[in-house]
Design brief:
The chain has nine helices and ten strands. By secondary structure, it is an alpha/beta fold. It has a single domain, classed as 3-Layer(aba) Sandwich (Rossmann fold), CATH 3.40.50.150. The strands form two sheets. It has a seven-stranded mixed beta sheet with strand order 6-5-4-7-8-10-9. Helix 4 crosses helix 5.
């Protein structure tokens, strides 16, 4: 297994740890974005401006304040996803409700996708579009596939307001016509922890691999853990391991980053990048 030692990812983890200890916000959903580049978080000024623009033009964020963490000047955005979360859970139980990662983390995931040689990034269950948005910032062709119409409209509003035009598709990722995208080296992000996301992952991957040219070139990024699920009756089920074995996927990299559900915990969330074994 390759575990990513990217300096930017490690810098964000350190920032998050200090943020968890010292953040003064009251909102459950809150996240920092640096106001300037630094040694700890070396992000181009133009990219930082675009990340702030995403938050400023995203109605899930209703307030912000400025603070410092590890000496880095940041703007902390506070938000509430309840309106969109409640809308997203009306779909079949095989689909994951809207629960976004950090904007900074989405940017690092896009950079990791480019570093691994992918040319397109497709976020399945794209929510407010942050992964696709950051993919566009990283120079990739970027697509968001979302089944919930309210979230599709939210993505379109953000793309229009920021003038970062990623490709937004409304539809069911398990039935979507992937051949229509003319992909050659794509990475597909599949939302959901392994305990909840296997149904979506299996259906989406099976559909994707009906496109002959993607059987050799596609990659898949999974969120969560591939460690042993202690409650599993069948001890051969190792988190995403069964899905990976079924589709002959090998681990290309693991990038650990903060998410909203780990923002006040010591642990962070691993993102497992996989490729199809030849």
């Amino acid at each position: 297994m390759i575990v990513n030692r990217d300096g930017l990812a490690e810098g964000i983890i350190k920032l998050k740890a200090d943020f968890a200890r010292n953040s003064q916000g009251t909102s459950y959903m809150r996240e920092p974005i640096p106001l300037e580049t630094s040694k700890l978080l070396s992000i181009e000024e133009s990219a930082l401006e675009a990340l702030h623009n995403f938050a400023k033009n995203n109605p899930i964020y209703f307030d912000w304040y400025d603070s410092q963490f590890l000496g880095v000047k940041c703007r902390v955005y506070e938000g509430d996803i309840n309106e969109y979360w409640l809308g997203s859970i009306k779909h079949d139980s095989g689909y994951q409700p809207f629960y976004p990662t950090w904007i900074l983390s989405a940017y690092v995931l896009a950079l990791a996708s480019r570093r691994l040689g992918f040319r397109q990034i497709i976020d399945i269950g794209s929510g407010d579009g942050r992964v696709a948005y950051c993919g566009k910032l990283a120079g990739l062709e970027a697509y968001g596939i979302e089944i919930d119409e309210d979230l599709v409209m939210l993505q379109k509003k953000i793309a229009s307001a920021t003038r970062i035009q990623f490709d937004i598709r409304s539809g069911d990722a398990t039935k979507f016509n992937y051949r229509s995208l003319h992909l050659d080296e794509p990475i597909f992000f599949i939302s959901g922890l392994p305990e909840m996301g296997e149904m979506l992952a299996n259906s989406a991957i099976a559909n994707i691999l009906t496109v002959p040219e993607l059987k050799q070139s596609a990659g898949f990024a999974f969120m969560g853990s591939h460690s042993l699920r202690k409650y599993a009756r069948d001890l051969s089920k190792w988190g995403w391991g069964k899905v990976m074995a079924d589709y002959r996927l090998h681990v290309a990299d693991v990038v650990t980053l903060p998410t909203h559900w780990t923002s006040e915990q010591m642990m962070d969330t691993p993102y497992i990048f996989t490729k199809i074994s030849s």
